[in-house]
Design a protein that fits this description.
With 224 residues, the protein is an alpha/beta fold. It has a single domain, classed as Formyl transferase, N-terminal domain (Rossmann fold, 3-Layer(aba) Sandwich), CATH 3.40.50.170. 31% of the residues lie in helices and 23% in strands. It contains 6 helices and 9 strands, in the order E-H-E-H-E-H-E-H-E-H-E-E-H-E-E. The chain has helices spanning 20-29, 49-56, 72-85, 102-107, 128-134, 170-193; strands spanning 9-15, 36-43, 61-63, 90-93, 112-116, 139-146, 156-163, 197-200, 203-206. It has a 7-stranded mixed beta sheet, sandwiched between helices. A two-stranded antiparallel ribbon has the order 8-9. Strand 8 (197-200) and strand 9 form a beta hairpin. Helix 1 packs parallel to helix 6. It binds 5-O-phosphono-beta-D-ribofuranosylamine. Residues 15, 17-22, 50, 94-95, 115-117, 178, 181 line the site of 5-O-phosphono-beta-D-ribofuranosylamine. 5-O-phosphono-beta-D-ribofuranosylamine (GRF) binds next to helix 1, strand 5 and helix 6.
Length: 224
């Protein structure tokens, strides 16, 4: 993993576990031309592996154990204090498994993004890959979006479509989607941090237009 650098928008990464998306953001932030830097990593679980990844990269890593707080609002207020102490300008949720209260979400409106392992608005919530396979879906994927108060909702910034194979298990599909997550989250954060995208009327708009991607056909078929 690359070491942190210190220029660009100050971001906080909020995690609850493994931290593989955090690792992809750390690597991106180490690039010279990247428009963001990680000011602090916060986990609601003190044992989260991602905290070790953050510390190994020389980042400030803070555990705020949600079980120590009686009310969601006081937990959120503690997170907010840590973010203010670190002059955070943008929040990236990366596997953060706590719902944030409305007040917090509104305070960070259009300054907080999330990654979710499905093509939203399809398959919000948990056990996504199991549900995708049960439904016989041929294409799944992942989504980076601005955060709104209801779970896994908000203006969509970017998505990657990923094929689902007939012999996939939830684990094999999760792995394929996760690789796509590691690719798209740094790219989406770049666009948010450098002003390439912004929210207008609850949709994401591109300051200078956007490029059309090739369609993904799944499975590949013989033509004609
Ligand atoms: C990812 O699949 C992310 O999309 C979801 O939670 C998982 C976190 O994985 N929100 P990691 O902790 O980044 O490895």
């Amino acid at each position: 993993m690359n070491v942190k650098r210190s220029s660009g928008k100050k971001i906080a990464v909020l995690i609850s576990g493994r931290g593989s998306n955090l690792a992809s953001l750390i690597d991106a932030c180490a690039r010279d031309d990247y428009p963001a830097q990680i000011a602090v990593v916060v986990s609601n679980r003190p044992a989260a592996k991602g905290l070790d990844i953050a510390r190994a990269a020389g980042l400030s890593a803070v555990a705020i154990d949600h079980t120590a707080f009686a009310a969601r609002e006081t937990f959120d207020a503690e997170i907010d204090k840590v973010l203010r102490d670190h002059d955070v300008e943008l929040i990236c949720l990366a596997g953060f498994m706590r719902l944030l209260a409305n007040d917090f979400v509104e305070r960070w409106r259009n300054r907080m993004i999330n990654i979710h392992p499905s093509l939203l608005p399809a398959y919000p919530g948990v056990n996504i890959h199991e549900r995708v396979i049960d439904d016989g879906v041929r294409i799944s994927g992942c989504t980076v979006h601005y955060v709104r108060a209801s779970m896994d909702s908000g203006p969509i910034i970017a998505q990657v479509a990923v094929p689902v194979l007939s012999n996939d298990t939830a684990d094999s599909l999760a792995q394929r989607v996760l690789s796509a997550e590691h690719q798209i989250y740094p790219q989406a954060l770049r666009m948010v941090a450098d002003g390439t995208v912004r929210v207008s009327g609850e949709r994401v708009v591109f300051a200078a237009g956007e490029q059309e991607a090739a369609p993904l056909v799944s499975p590949l078929m013989v033509t004609g």
